[in-house]
Specification:
There is one protein chain. By secondary structure, the protein is of the alpha/beta class. Helix content is 37%, strand content 17%. The protein is built from 10 helices and 8 strands. It has helices at 4-18, 29-32, 52-55, 58-63, 65-80, 86-97, 111-115, 175-187, 206-212, 226-229; strands at 22-26, 102-105, 120-122, 125-132, 139-141, 162-166, 190-194, 216-220. The strands form 2 sheets. It has a 5-stranded parallel sheet with strand order 3-2-1-7-8, with helices on both faces. A 3-stranded antiparallel sheet has the order 5-4-6. Strand 2, helix 7 (111-115) and strand 3 form a beta-alpha-beta unit. Helix 8 (175-187) packs parallel to helix 9. The longest helix has 16 residues, at 65-80. Residues 1-5 have low confidence and may be disordered.
Length: 230
């Protein structure tokens, strides 16, 4: 049951959001109800014996390209078996009602788009895309669901290996998406933060930027976060 104080807070937040100028910032928590584990939680069964450094770094890929490719193929199959949850659909409905809404997500699962959100900035990439390891500008959505491969497929343009279009540890976030996200944070009147701890930079800076520029910040999390303390 929602308390009177909570209801008053909800009504106030709804009034702010209804005024428009909304940016939504989401993290892993928004997809938890869909059954998608975080990166570290996903290391189960066969994959428990491998470290994040082996599976999600450039060095790990260079050391064993097939291992890394097969890990992401496994994760891709797992994500494709999941469905958007009511939270994804509610955020998509906000965009339908307020068409200028921008969703900035740290998630790579594509569930926002599958729920109907159209303007989504993926700061950490997408499990559904691959790109050339040698940055020859080749990107594509990937449909192959092969169980395992002896080596990753190669780029049609330059013959380098393809790799998941995911931001690995030690890599820079995609410049265009990051610039758009910070511009949106600077311009918004309300930022709705959902399912993120506020610890992962630079995404964690977005609510601070929005607040500094005069926006209201509404947080939806089961527990207080770094954002709550600011």
């Amino acid at each position: 049951m929602v308390s009177e104080l909570d209801m008053a807070d909800l009504e106030r937040a709804a009034e702010w959001i209804a005024s428009g100028g909304l940016v939504i910032s989401t993290g892993a928590g928004v997809s938890r109800e869909s059954g998608i584990p975080t990166f570290r939680e996903a290391g189960e069964g066969f994959w428990q014996k491998y470290s994040p450094e082996q599976l999600a770094t450039v060095e790990g890929f260079l050391s064993d390209p097939a291992l890394v490719w097969n890990w992401y193929a496994w994760r891709r199959r797992m994500v494709r078996q999941c469905e958007p949850n009511p939270g994804h659909y509610a955020l998509a409905e906000l965009e339908r009602v307020l068409p200028s809404t921008v969703t900035v997500t740290q998630n790579v699962d594509g569930l926002h788009q599958r729920a109907g959100s159209a303007h989504v900035l993926e700061l950490h990439g997408s499990i559904e895309r691959v790109r050339c390891f040698d940055f020859c500008s080749m990107y594509e959505n990937w449909q192959d669901e092969s169980e395992t491969v002896a080596e990753p497929p190669r780029c049609a343009k330059c013959e380098a290996y393809l790799r998941p279009d995911i931001v690995w540890f030690g890599e820079q976030l995609p410049e265009r998406e990051l610039d758009e996200a910070f511009r949106a944070a600077e311009r918004c009147r309300v930022m709705l933060v959902v399912g993120t701890s506020g610890l992962v930079q630079p995404a964690a800076s977005l609510p601070w930027v929005a607040r500094r520029c005069g926006a209201r910040v509404v947080e939806v999390n089961p527990q207080p976060s770094e954002i709550s303390q600011s």
